[in-house]
Amino acid sequence: MSRLILFNKPYGVLSQFTDAGTAGSPRKTLSDFIDVPGVYAAGRLDQDSEGLLVLTDDGQVQNRISDPKFKQPKTYWAQVEGVPDDAVLQNLRSGVVLKDGKTAPAKAEAIAEPDNLWPRDPPIRFRKSVPDSWISLTITEGRNRQVRRMTAAVGHPTLRLIRAQIGDWRLGELRPGQWRAIAV
């Protein structure tokens, strides 16, 4: 039987168990939160992004989650600069042209700030002269920093990014740094 762990990755944590990066100031990794032998992350979440990360000990499950050919939907909540209008949201839905080509169509909608949202440490920058708002964006690709690049391309840079769902798995009530094992 496969093991599957849902983890709410805090801001600033690497999506791996070791830090082979810069010497001197070690960065937080999954090993600071999860002490379960034999599991590894199914996909990645940037150090400066937060939210749902799935870990497993089953290579086939990992492949189904992370390989783009399976088109596993991933939903993100993005706090963006400005207030995207219907034309901007439609542009995201149609696919956005990035340096590495046009993205696949996405589901995009304006949302209220998500319920039960935790404060980010450190907080996002606040500018009195520039409003911010939230959008929900569901993609089926997994390009490097894709959501951030998409929102920037349509004129609304991402300030904060939280992955809320992968396929049928949801972040739910997990707080940053918390995890739970689920039956597969």
Keywords, please?
alpha+beta; Alpha-Beta Plaits; 2 domains; globular
- Specify the number of helices: 3
CATH class of the largest domain: Alpha Beta
Cα distance spanning the termini: 7 Å
* CATH homologous superfamily (4th level) name of the largest domain: Alpha-L RNA-binding motif
**Which fold does the CATH topology of the largest domain refer to?**
Alpha-Beta Plaits
Assign the CATH architecture of the largest domain.
2-Layer Sandwich
Q: How would you spell out the order of helices and strands?
A: EEEHEHEEEEHEEE
Characterize the overall form: globular
Secondary structure: elements and pairs:
Blueprint: E1 4-9, E2 40-41, E3 50-56, H1 59-66, E4 74-81, H2 86-94, E5 97-98, E6 101-102, E7 107-111, E8 132-139, H3 146-153, E9 158-166, E10 169-170, E11 179-182
Parallel strand pairs: 3-9
Antiparallel strand pairs: 1-3, 1-11, 2-3, 4-8, 4-9, 5-6, 7-8, 9-10
How does this structure look, described?
The protein folds into two domains: 1-70 and 168-184, Pseudouridine synthase I, catalytic domain, N-terminal subdomain (Alpha-Beta Plaits, 2-Layer Sandwich); 73-166, Alpha-L RNA-binding motif (Alpha-Beta Plaits, 2-Layer Sandwich). The chain is globular, with a radius of gyration of 17 Å. The protein is 14% helix and 30% strand. The mean pLDDT is 91. It starts with a strand and ends with a strand. It has helices spanning 59-66, 86-94, 146-153, and strands spanning 4-9, 40-41, 50-56, 74-81, 97-98, 101-102, 107-111, 132-139, 158-166, 169-170, 179-182. The strands form two sheets. Strands 1, 2, 3, 4, 7, 8, 9, 10 and 11 form a nine-stranded mixed β-sheet that branches. A two-stranded antiparallel sheet has the order 5-6. The longest helix has 9 residues, at 86-94. With 184 residues, it is α+β, with helices and mostly antiparallel strands.
